Amino acid sequence: MEKKMISIAALLGMVAIILGAFGAHALKKVLSLEQLNIFETGVKYQMYHALFLLFTGTSHLISENAKRAILNLVVIGVLFFSGSIYLLATDDLTTFDFRIIGFVTPIGGAFLIAAWFLCLYHSVKKSAGKN
């Protein structure tokens, strides 16, 4: 599980850097400042959660089952949260109205919060069991 989590963390981090550079350079010419800020929010949260997976994957306080659940929650959360933000921020560039998928953003956020909760719960539970 450790290898899988670290690999996915690296992939999410790499894609966040690519999208951040794309936003800062290519999208800067076609999006408003507000849209760029929204896009950047998606990049930030994606990177935060790449680092979160990196930490979680190497932690010995969290069981393999909990790591698996956290990984699934983060991947789905990033896809829904950051993915929908990327689409919403660039909505003006396409003929499709991505605002109809706006409800996905808070669902993704809930998945990310649940991942952090599991990390907290299992690390405290493991720490309490050692006393």
Automatic annotation (TrEMBL):
Question: What Pfam families has UniProt attached to this entry?
Answer: DUF423 (PF04241)
Which controlled-vocabulary keywords does the entry list? Membrane, Transmembrane, Transmembrane helix
Membrane topology for this entry? Multi-pass membrane protein
Write out the annotated subcellular location.
Answer: Membrane
Q: Which Gene Ontology cellular-component terms appear in the entry?
A: plasma membrane
Tell me which InterPro entries the record gives.
DUF423
Q: Mind telling me which residue stretches traverse the membrane in this protein?
A: 45-62, 69-88, 100-121
Family classification: Belongs to the UPF0382 family.
Enumerate the PANTHER family for this protein: TRANSMEMBRANE PROTEIN 256
Q: State the name under which the record lists this protein.
A: DUF423 domain-containing protein
> Whose protein is this, by species?
Flavobacterium psychrotolerans
Print the organism lineage.
Bacteria, Pseudomonadati, Bacteroidota, Flavobacteriia, Flavobacteriales
